[in-house]
Specification:
Distance between the termini of chain D: 27 Å
Largest sheet of chain D: none
Number of helices of chain A: 25
Structural class of chain A: mainly alpha
Shape of chain D: globular
Mean pLDDT of chain A: 81
Number of domains of chain D: 2
Oligomer: heteropentamer
Domain NADH:quinone oxidoreductase/Mrp antiporter transmembrane (chain A): 136-415
Number of strands of chain D: 0
Order of helices and strands of chain D: HHHHHHHHHHHHHHHHHH
Membrane topology (chain A): Multi-pass membrane protein
Structural class of chain D: mainly alpha
InterPro entries (chain A): NADHpl_OxRdtase_5_subgr, ND/Mrp_TM, NU5C-like, Proton_antipo_N
Subcellular location (chain A): Endomembrane system; Membrane
Largest interface: B-C, 72 and 88 residues
Protein name (chain A): NADH-quinone oxidoreductase subunit L
Radius of gyration of chain D: 22 Å
Helix content of chain A: 55-70%
Radius of gyration of chain A: 33 Å
Distance between the termini of chain A: 93 Å
Shape of chain A: globular
Chains: A mainly alpha, B mainly alpha, C mainly alpha, D mainly alpha, E mainly alpha
Chain lengths: 671, 123, 166, 485, 502
């Protein structure tokens, strides 16, 4: 069995990472880049070999390996075990291939940074963690990778830690995803306790299908996991961290915050789709959230001026599509879109990085302009990416993947309550509008950046090492879609076929009523759906041309400050909302209670004891009040209001003795 | 031949004891305190003598003798202390004034013999 | 005889009260002597003539002389008695007196007030006392001598005035 | 009636003989060194003679003195304490002209004599005489520094008046007991009829004992007197006087069940004593006053054991006495070693600042002693307090245990406070000059070893030494019946 | 010969040697001003070898109690010097040594004033701790329990930082005072046993079989619980901890956080859950609620601190809340989680205190706002700091998470809402840990007046070992779980009783 290759796949970047961290000072910039890219490249090679082996195998069994038993006790059994099936194959290919290209790019891009070893250390560690995540066959193991990528994301966002804004952004990303992670952990615990202490994915899924898990458990677990996935994938209401995460170096944004990590949520749900399909309400929630997110993010992207932020919002929006697909039940489409999105979004980020590097780290699109002449190659690559993102019909990969989603949503229906369902038409309409908006904002970007006169000085050339990945990715963004095409055009279904074993396993297992809304192919969908899906981006492009393509000088805002803008602001509005409702109160309360209240109480009690002892002193020194006239002085501890009379101690003591005698006699006589 | 019964004697002794006690508590002059103590001791002696008579036992009177010895040495020591205090220039034999041993209420130089009121606590 | 007993008891008490209420120390000492003499009568009536004699000789005699001696040494005068008057205001003695009364009441409550159980006790002469003193209690006499010795040393120790040159 | 016999406890004999020799020696020529040496030899002789008594009481008879292991044990503790105190005061007495050595040595001897007499007495007369010999001697000792420190005289005056008062009360109580029982036997008065007088007698004797033990609320004199006295005399008050009176308390009441009329009184006094002692100690800035307050609290702890008859009681009381004696003596010895002639004793806690760096030996030993007093290992006090709690648990004195725990926690605070002060930074001005004082070094070392060995191997000390319980349940029934009848 | 008494006494004797080596006369003979340091290092190494021998030594019988030593001590009261070792005590002793070695290596060499006394006290504390872990006579246990506090008190009070004396007294009062309650419980148990069987003994194994009424056993258990709760610490009685940890000298902070607190957890396992299983299960809801409160409260306060050591101290409270939670879930998994959490917390927090102490040694401040970014100047220290901070925030794959996960799992079985609340602590853990990371490691450097030196490679290697332990604990805890399983008293009562050392 080629299972042994799986740990090797992970080990390679992991070893590179360890070496990079340990010998950070002794490794040259060049060596660091070489080591990192080499290790990821090696993984890419292995994953290709694995792909070959997996696809050419005769039976339908996935490759599996159990490294060791993490723990086995009476009621718990968790393994460090990996599994390669078509779903994870897709993911490792994306991670290693795109990752390799990005590393290659970064080797040049970051060459001048003094912290390059740390950078590549984190990057390779990220790749390793991501591979753990996608390969894990035990949800516990998956969770290790899940948190690991979050950590790397944190480290890379805050890579330039000298600027407090960057570290703040990094922390924000980590905190928000941590909230999701905690929810996910709860989901895992719920599954684990209900499913007999094992988180083996196959075990969980079979428990779902055999009805071992009650529906409430399934719904609860699905909800918890969904929250985790939403946070990781920056969906409503967790979307605020991703735009800020652009504070990291651009290759990071490309790899982590566009191509791979943020899609981990999608991957998780695709992995566990049987669990989710058994929870229709959660599916509906997922779809609606995805739809809302894609609309909201697209609108927000429309009014952004920062190039990377536009891309970030577009990432959120595209992830929204994937969640819509997942919510609809067509996880294959979601995965397909994930792949194409990885290509074109990585391309867009890398080109954006190339652009930004050339214009002296200016990220405001309105300060760029006229770049086409200075860097036609980059512009071409960007254009390719933009078209793929917009989903221009026929020639781009984005079109096919988006089309697959749209055509499936139309016939679906989403359960809201027993006997009440939400029609797929509505969501389809929204998604179509989203497609229009996508084309609008990305071509707004294109039209502002490239034509016209340069606004800022442009220097240097894009190095070849950076250009090669761009070219590769551009090719993939355009051609990557041909593996899966709608029947209406050419019936090519390489992708879904590849995933077939996994899908077969699922559809066989799921009870009929749970899959009522699932439609894998668009066969039953009307033709005009395809047409509409093709027209919407083109329309977006046209409108963008009308608005920004011809007009000079540059318009700085979207025309008509009305509804659309306020809607568009929603994206950043949530941020402010959270700040006011969560962050500031938390900070204030924490500040308020920075001195331990309980400590104060107990120390206060201690002080009271001392006061009490003062009282005993007063008894000693005090007087019957009858002894003699004396100077009445307040004690320094005025609160006791005890007075000290200049009196005779001897008689006072004697009086106590006699009083004690009287009391003792009385008590004895009354006994 | 006695005309006093034990309980009569005890009655007298109790009254005498209380009187002496009141003297110790009320008087401030050391001399008077010593005299009051003597009265109390006598009350105790009376009890012993009366009880000895009651039981027809000489031990009571032996005890009386011991009390006498105690009274003598206590009075002697007490008067020596009075003289000592007097010699140190205490304005009077007031048992109350000039407390050099105010304990925690001490303030200022203990040798000055002039405590200032009001300082409850040092440090 | 009954009358004599009552009288001496009354004198004893009145004397004691006078002692604690006098302002001039010498008066108090004299009243104390009266008290002790009356007490000696009580002792005699209780059948303890030896005790009565000792009370008169040692207590009213020797011990009281000590007091007088010290009073003379102290040279107390008018200011002292005025001060005593100042100190003997009701608010000064009310509390202690109450306390003493309370104790007295408690004591009286405990005492048996029924007319006494036994017949009148016999006389215990000096001979009886002496026999037991130098019989079973001979060691006690020795101890008492140590008591007196320590009283002596203490008085001497405290009574010395100056640092003695060594 | 008292049976005539010739029984005389031999330590008493040694002490009185020593006193005579000393008197003769003083009469011949005054010499501090010789007086002290005679004192030391006398004490050693008394120690050596303990347990070898002259004559013996015929069995089944009532005697003036009693010989049992309890008396021997307390006698040994007292004489050992006196030896330590003599060593503590050696330097001051031998070298400082302000301290008249001869009288001090003499009074130390007579005081010890009185204490030992109390311990061995089985009769009111020797008990009372011992008590007064002790008291009058203390009077002289307390005032012995008066020429340099006028507090001495004042402290003596307070002690005189208050102890006179308590003696009178005790005597009156003893008289009532005699009146009711016709016997001077030193034990709870039990007779048919007149329960009121019995009660009054017991209570008055108890109050007298409580005064000397300084149980709250009869404790007020102790801090004043101890502070006014020289340090060794303060130790004498805290040790000798307390051991003697405590042994008498145990002998008087026995360790069995209390008479019914004291069953609420004793716990009340214990609670007041523990809390009052500890709380008062909390505020002290003077070391001797603090020790006075802590000794008050320790009396409270001990009384819990007295109240808890059972299998553990006897051994626990024994070991607690040993622990208290050794630890407190150690502290006093260290205080003495801290001072130097012509320099005031280190009686202000603030004077001890930085001792860990200036005189680590003293600091470490003092910490050990204080921890032992606080009941923390490895000192002997740990086991002692453990035993006290064990007896309390055995008898289920829940309230008392709660108070004990509270008191111990408060106690910890002030003991630790001293250690805390010692760990502070030293100010050079505060460090008194060091003098050679081999006797104190030896004393401190020996006491330290005792404290540690006793703490680690307390088994040997755990011997049942107490006299048989004087008050057994049937007696109570008699009492109750007689009272109701 | 059983190595157990040697294991207990060796550090103490070594401490005496270290102390003597510091005498002026000895110092001239040894010609080495660092003699105490060297001696204590040597002692710890020997102790480690001894422990290794004890670990590898074949078990004296088939039961889970691997070693046994007993001599009578105070026979009159049935007290014996009895030591027994099972997996739990063995692993905690290992933890003690693994932490005290780096502490001595890294942090005590700087002690210049009275170094001999310092090392003596330090090693005495270790003796107390090891004794606590081994004693199976209740009196002996209490003896060691009290004994370990004294040297620690002096260490804090004399060698600590600015507000050390108040902190030391607070530490001592709390731990000692609660110890008295435990003493009451011990005696109550002994007396109850005496009443039932007429045998006076303090033997853990015999007492475990005491028949108790439910209310009495609850009462006795709560006495033990309070003492352990103060030590652990549990929230309302935690107040000594932040002060003590903050003010203690570095090595003592390490020992306090790393090991001393574990005696509380150890006690809860051995003397609450195992000695009073039924009472513990009835008490469990309260204890678990306290655990959750501790998790949240500690984390919350940790978020607001600017003093690094204080921040770490409050985070300890949060982490140990998991221990409490786990112990009282009543399941084996929870117990194992608690043990793993104890080990992991000991390593991570101990190391964090080491790092905080090193920072304070170099920069003379613990205020995050005045430290600034250290990564540029001290990448090794900062890297290690980052690692341990990440461990403390509960990163899967590191030891802390393993413990927390098991505890949460066991808690979920009992009460899902409680588990959810406890899990919320993980979010707060992220907040305080990353706040620290971005406060002192990954932040813009402040203008530092003088250059600071990084950890040398040797010291880094020591920390590296700790990191490796944490990683192993996180990735492969199974052997630890098997190794450190606590043994119930009944086992020895059945098989090992009366076995005398060969």
């Amino acid at each position: 069995m080629p299972g042994f290759l799986l740990p090797l796949l992970i080990l390679s970047p992991l070893a590179a990472s360890v070496i990079l961290f340990l010998f950070a000072k002794r490794i040259s910039a060049r060596g660091a880049g070489l080591l990192a890219a080499g290790s990821v490249g090696f993984s890419a090679v292995i994953s290709m070999v694995l792909a070959f082996l997996l696809l050419s195998r005769t039976n339908a069994d996935p490759f599996q390996i159990t490294l060791w038993e993490w723990m086995r006790t009476a009621d718990i059994s968790a393994h460090m075990s990996f599994l390669l099936d078509p779903v994870s194959l897709v993911m490792i290919l994306v991670v290693t291939v795109v990752g390799f290209l990005i590393h290659l790019y970064a080797a040049r891009y970051m060459a001048d940074d003094p912290g390059i070893a740390r950078f590549f250390g984190c990057m390779t560690l990220f790749v390793a963690a991501m591979l753990v995540l996608v390969l894990a066959s035990d949800l516990f193991c998956l969770f290790i990778g899940w948190e690991g990528v979050g950590l790397c994301s944190y480290l890379l966002i805050g890579f330039w830690y000298e600027n407090p804004a960057n570290t703040a952004a990094a922390r924000k990303a980590f905190y928000i995803t941590r909230i999701g992670d905690t929810a996910m952990l709860c989901g895992l615990l719920l599954l684990m306790t209900s499913a007999g202490g094992s988180l083996q994915i196959s075990h969980i899924l079979s428990a779902v299908t055999t009805g071992q898990l009650s529906s409430s458990v399934v719904s609860g677990a699905a909800l918890f996991l969904l929250i985790g996935a939403l946070a990781k994938s920056a969906q409503i209401p967790f979307q605020t961290w991703l735009p800020d995460a652009m504070a990291g170096p651009t290759p990071t944004s490309a790899l982590i915050h566009a191509a791979t990590m943020v899609t981990a949520g999608v991957y998780l749900i695709a992995r566990l789709h049987m669990l989710f399909t058994a929870a229709p309400l959660v599916m509906t929630l997922m779809a609606v959230t995805g739809t809302l997110t894609l609309l909201m993010a697209a609108c927000t992207a429309l009014v952004q001026t920062d190039l990377k932020r536009i891309l970030a919002w577009s990432t959120i929006s595209q992830l929204g599509y994937m969640f819509l697909a997942l919510g609809t039940g067509i996880w294959q489409a979601a995965l397909f879109h994930l792949v194409t999105h990885a290509f074109f979004k990585a391309l867009l980020f890398l080109t954006a990085g190339a652009i930004i590097a050339r214009v002296h780290h200016e990220q405001n699109i309105f300060r760029m302009g006229g770049l086409f002449r200075a860097m036609p190659g980059v512009a071409a690559a960007f254009l390719a990416g933009a078209s793929a993102l917009a989903g221009l019909p026929l020639i781009t990969a984005g079109f096919y993947s988006k089309e697959m989603i749209l055509s499936s949503v139309w016939p679906a229906s989403f359960a809201l309550a027993p006997g009440l369902a939400l029609s797929g038409h509505l969501l389809w309409g929204a998604a179509l509008a989203g497609a229009f908006l996508t084309a609008l904002y990305i071509f707004r970007c294109v039209f502002i950046i490239f034509p016209g006169q340069p606004q800022t000085a442009i220097s240097g050339r894009t190095p070849r090492l950076m250009a090669i990945p761009l070219a590769c990715l551009a090719f993939l963004s355009l051609a990557g879609g041909f593996v899966e095409m709608p029947d209406a055009l050419v019936p090519v279904h390489l992708f879904t076929h590849m995933l077939a074993p996994a899908a077969a396993g699922s559809s066989a297992a799921i009870s009929p009523d749970a899959v009522s809304h699932i439609a894998i192919s668009g066969a039953e969908a009307p033709r005009w759906l395809l047409l509409a899906g093709g027209i919407a981006p083109v329309a977006g492009l046209a409108v963008a041309w009308v608005l920004w393509g011809r007009t000079r000088p540059v318009m700085r805002e979207v025309p008509g400050q009305a509804a659309i803008v306020s809607l568009a602001r929603a994206g950043s509005g949530t941020d402010r909302l959270y700040d006011v409702f969560f962050v500031q109160p938390f900070r204030f309360l924490a500040w308020l209670t920075r001195h331990d209240i309980i400590d104060g109480l107990i120390t206060g009690a201690g002080r009271m004891t001392r006061r009490l002892s003062l009282f005993f002193l007063q008894v000693r020194a005090g007087s019957l009040g009858l002894a003699s006239a004396g100077t009445i002085t307040m004690t320094r501890e005025g609160d006791l209001l005890l007075t000290r009379l200049q009196n005779g101690r001897v008689r006072w003591y004697a009086a106590w003795i006699v009083a004690g005698l009287c009391a003792a006699l009385a008590s004895a006589l009354l006994a | 031949m006695s005309v006093l019964s034990l309980s009569d004697a005890l009655l007298l002794a109790a009254l005498l004891f209380a009187t002496g006690l009141a003297g110790v508590l009320v008087r401030r002059d050391l001399l008077f305190m010593l005299m009051s103590l003597d009265i109390m001791l006598n009350a105790a002696a009376l009890v012993f003598v009366a009880a000895g008579a009651r039981w027809h036992d000489a031990s009571g009177q032996v005890m009386f003798l011991m009390i006498l010895a105690l009274a003598a040495s206590e009075t002697a020591a007490g008067l020596a202390i009075i003289l000592c205090l007097h010699a140190r220039g205490r304005p009077s034999l007031d048992a109350d004034t000039g407390n050099l041993l105010p304990g925690n209420l001490r303030s200022g130089n203990p040798l000055s013999g002039n405590p200032q009121p009001g300082n409850l606590q040092r440090g | 005889m009954q009358f004599l007993a009552l009288l001496s008891a009354a004198i004893t008490l009145i004397g004691a009260i006078m002692v604690i209420t006098r302002r001039v120390a010498v008066h108090a000492v004299l009243w104390l002597v009266v008290t002790l003499l009356a007490l000696a009568v009580v002792f005699a009536l209780l059948g303890a003539p030896f005790a009565a004699a000792l009370e008169v000789i040692i207590y009213a005699g020797a011990v009281m002389v000590l007091f007088v001696f010290v009073i003379m040494m102290l040279n107390l005068g008018r200011p002292d008695s005025d001060r005593e008057k100042e100190w003997l205001r009701p608010r000064a003695w009310l509390g202690p007196a109450l306390l003493a009364t309370l104790l007295c009441g408690e004591l009286l409550y405990t005492l048996p007030f029924r007319p006494d159980d036994t017949a009148a006790p016999d006389l215990l002469t000096a001979r009886d006392v002496g026999l037991s003193l130098f019989g079973p209690y001979v060691l006690m006499v020795e101890l008492a001598s140590f008591l007196l010795l320590s009283g002596l040393v203490t008085s001497f120790h405290i009574g010395r005035h100056r640092l003695r040159e060594r | 009636m008292i049976v005539h016999d010739l029984f005389l406890p031999s330590p008493l004999l040694a002490l009185s003989a020593g006193t005579m020799v000393l008197l003769a020696s003083i009469a011949w020529r005054r010499s501090a060194a010789r007086s002290l040496s005679i004192g030391l030899i006398t004490f050693l002789a008394a120690l050596a003679l303990t347990g070898r008594h002259v004559g013996s009481a015929p069995p089944g008879t009532v005697t003036l003195f009693i010989q049992d292991r309890w008396a021997d044990y307390n006698g040994i503790l007292i004489v050992l304490s006196s030896i330590s105190i003599l060593l503590m005061s050696w330097r001051d007495l031998a070298r400082d002209p302000a301290h008249p050595a001869d009288e001090s040595a003499l009074l130390l001897l007579t005081g010890t004599l009185g204490a030992v007499a109390m311990v061995f007495s089985a009769n009111y007369i020797p008990f009372f005489l011992g008590l007064e010999i002790l008291g009058i001697s203390l009077l002289g000792l307390v005032a012995s520094r008066r020429l340099r420190f006028p507090e001495g005289c004042e402290a003596a005056m307070k002690y005189l008046i208050l102890s006179g008062l308590s003696s009178a009360i005790l005597l009156f109580g003893a008289g009532l007991a005699y009146a009711v029982t016709g016997s001077l036997h030193f034990t709870l008065p039990v007779a048919a009829g007149s329960p009121g007088i019995q009660t009054a007698a017991t209570i008055m004797i108890l109050i007298g004992i409580f005064f000397k033990l300084s149980a709250v609320p009869f404790h007020l004199w102790l801090p004043d007197v101890m502070e006014g006295a020289p340090v060794p005399v303060a130790a004498f008050i805290a040790m000798v006087s307390k051991i003697a009176i405590f042994s008498s308390l145990v002998r008087f009441f026995g360790t069995g069940h209390l008479p019914f009329y004291m069953q609420s009184l004793m716990p009340a006094v214990i609670i007041l004593t523990i809390l009052g002692g500890n709380l008062q100690a909390l505020q002290q800035t003077s070391f001797t006053r603090l020790l006075a307050c802590s000794s008050i609290a320790h009396v409270g702890y001990l009384l819990i054991a007295v109240l808890s008859p059972g299998q553990l009681q006897s051994g626990v009381i024994t070991i607690y006495l040993a622990a208290y004696t050794a630890s407190t003596l150690g502290v006093f010895a260290i205080i003495s070693a801290f001072g130097s002639p012509g320099h005031p004793d280190g009686t202000e806690i603030a004077d001890w600042k930085g001792l860990f760096s200036t005189r680590p030996f003293l600091a470490v030993t003092l910490s050990l002693m204080l921890l032992s007093l606080a009941g923390i290992p490895p000192g002997i006090g740990f086991f002692a307090k453990f035993g006290i709690i064990a007896t309390g648990v055995e008898r289920q004195h829940d309230l008392l245990l709660a108070v004990l725990v509270t008191g111990s926690i408060i106690g910890l605070y002030y003991y630790l406070n001293i250690i805390r002060v010692m760990t502070g930074a030293a100010t050079p001005l505060m460090v008194p000059p060091r003098t050679r004082q081999p006797e104190l070094t030896v004393l401190v070392t020996v006491l330290t070893i005792i404290v540690i060995i006793g703490g680690l191997f307390p088994a040997r000390l755990l011997r049942p030494l107490l006299p048989a319980p004087a008050m057994t349940p049937p007696y109570q029934d008699v009492m109750k019946a007689s009272r109701s009848g | 010969m059983s190595p157990l008494p040697a294991l207990v006494l060796l550090p103490f004797l070594g401490g005496i040697a270290a102390w003597l080596a510091d005498r002026p006369r000895a110092a001239t003979v040894l010609r080495n001003r660092e003699a105490p340091w060297r001696i204590s290092l040597m002692v710890l190494v020997i102790e480690t070898l001894l422990l290794l021998a004890a670990t590898l030594r074949p078990s004296i019988h088939n039961g889970p109690w691997t070693d046994h030593f007993s001599v009578p001590w105070i026979p009159a009261m049935g007290i014996a010097f009895r030591l027994d070792m099972d997996g739990l005590s063995l692993s905690l002793i290992w933890l003690t040594l693994i932490l005290s070695l780096p502490a001595v290596l890294l942090a005590t060499r700087q002690v210049k004033t009275n170094a001999g006394a310092f090392h003596f006290l330090f090693l005495s504390t270790i003796t107390g701790i090891i004794g606590t872990f081994l004693a199976t006579d209740l009196f002996l246990f209490f003896f060691f329990w009290e004994l370990m506090l004294v040297p620690m008190f002096v260490l804090i009070s004399a060698w600590g930082h600015e507000d050390r004396q108040r902190a030391a007294i607070k530490f001592f009062l709390f731990t000692q005072g609660s110890g008295l309650l435990m003493l009451l419980s011990i005696l109550g148990l002994v007396i109850a046993h005496y009443r039932a069987t007429n045998v006076l003994t303090f033997d853990y194994f015999i007492l475990a079989a005491t028949p108790l009424s439910p209310s009495l056993s609850l009462l006795l258990m709560s006495g033990f619980f309070i003492a352990f709760a103060v030590k652990l610490p549990v929230v309302p009685v935690h107040v000594w901890l932040p002060d003590a940890h903050t003010q203690a000298p570095t090595a003592c902070s390490v020992l306090l956080a790393g090991v001393l607190l574990k005696t509380g957890g150890y006690g809860m396992i051995r003397f609450n859950v195992m000695l009073f299983p039924e009472a513990a299960s009835r008490f469990a809801p309260v204890a678990m609620a306290l655990g959750v409160a501790g998790i949240l409260y500690g984390a919350w306060l940790s978020c607001a601190q600017n003093d690094i050591k204080r921040l770490i101290a409050y985070s300890s409270i949060s982490h140990l809340g998991f221990v409490l939670l786990g112990i009282f879930t009543g399941s084996q998994t929870g117990m194992q989680g608690a043990i793993i959490q104890m080990l992991a917390h000991g390593l991570s927090t101990g190391a964090l205190f080491l790092i905080a102490g090193s920072i304070q040694d170099r920069l003379h401040t613990r205020d995050m706002r005045q430290i600034g970014g250290l990564w540029a100047a001290m990448p090794r220290l900062s890297g290690a700091g980052l690692f341990f901070a990440v461990a403390s925030l509960g990163m899967p794959g590191l030891g802390n998470f393993a413990g927390e996960f098991l505890v949460l799992f066991a808690t979920w079985h009992v009460s899902p809402p409680m588990a959810v609340l406890a899990a919320t602590g993980l979010v707060l853990a992220a907040i305080y840990s990353l706040r620290m990371v971005n406060g002192i490691f990954l932040a813009a450097p402040l203008a530092s007046p003088k250059p600071v030196t990084d950890f040398p490679a040797g010291q880094m290697a020591v920390l590296g070992c700790v990191m490796a332990f944490l990683l192993v604990l996180g990735l492969y805890p199974q052997p630890f779980v098997t190794f450190s399983a606590p043994s119930p008293p009944a086992v020895t009562a059945a098989t090992g009783e009366g076995v005398s050392p060969p």
